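Hello again,

I reread your note about wanting to compare the complex against the isolated chains. To keep things tidy I'm splitting this into two emails, and this first one only covers the full assembly. Below are the input lines as submitted, including protein chains and any nucleic acid or small-molecule components. They are followed by the predicted structure of everything together. The single-chain runs will come separately.
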Amino acid sequence: MADKRDILKKYFGFSCFRRGQEEVIDAILAGRDVLAVMPTGAGKSLCYQIPALLLEGLTLVISPLISLMQDQVKALQEAGIPSAFLNSSLSSGEYGKTMSGILRGDYRILYVAPERLKRGLPPELGESQPGIALVVIDEAHCVSQWGHDFRPSYLEITGFIGELNRRPRTAAFTATATPRVREDIRRALALKEPFGLTTGFDRKNLYFEVQKPADRFGALWECLTARRGKSGIIYCSTRKTVEELCGALKARGLRATRYHGGLDDRERRENQNDFIHDRKPLMVATNAFGMGIDKANVSFVIHYNMPKNMESYYQEAGRAGRNGEAADCILLYSPQDVRINTFLIKNGQDGEVKNQALIDHN
Ligand code: ADP
Ligand code: MG
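Full-complex prediction:
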């Protein structure tokens, strides 16, 4: 029988595991629940995709982002791993085809939006043999109201699992490390004595710098000039700044695009794709942009404004250097930002609405 190393090599083309991956895979194969906290880019997907190929039965991956699901399934299919997704982007014909495929046992891995668990899956799935071997909750912090991406439908996951004939092992993954969020995940998902793994958060390929420029745009321009042709994200705290900055960069001939909660779904999707496929290598965005974006070659993240808190900062900056190459995280500090953030926090405002485009509307 193939083992985890053969699969790592054969399907994914890697010859060694990264920190934490092997322990998580072993725990899942041993039948344990898992709660793994690993930073963005650490390689969480392999931790469940490899067991999916070794276990008998289907692996169900609950994921909050339609675009991410599609990308992952495409990559898996290209690697020769039978997989599919269920979300609102499918036509009813495609949906029906996938449902039949599930019942025939065509897939090893099925990605599903949390909103689809209750009524979107074939009811026979829970009873069929070998049924569901593993339930994975990706971006598991979405279950916590203390996190920044709370998603109410994540609260229905436990009920769904409870109604299955046999309880599959359950593995939760997140990059959000606060003890409160971790405890919330464990409780809300009713994980049973989970194998807990929290890897270090030091990512050696990331270089962190704080600048205190008198002329903020000038400093940004310098950063960008030094990195021409490379892909990067520029985070701003307001939609207005995103608009202004993106306009200014475009006017100066840079291939930049924008993203914030005030744009319609279509534009957000298009801009995101332009960025992901490097048609526009610069993304100017509010914090509504980025969750689950798997773009390996982001070589810098610049915070044009100070982020809300340390957690958000690390999550956003952590989108740089996912391919393991040297990458820069630069914060342009201004005392004025502190005043704006203090105001927003005191008035209980989030600074930006949650990204509605990510919700899988039924
Ligand atoms: P996460 O979900 O933790 O943010 P991903 O699972 O998206 O991270 O993986 C990030 C990148 O790391 C991907 O491009 C993936 O192919 C790569 N990767 C994962 N595991 C390994 C490994 N063992 N060796 C080399 N690259 C890896
Ligand atoms: Mg991930």
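For quick reference: The chain has a mean pLDDT of 89.

B.
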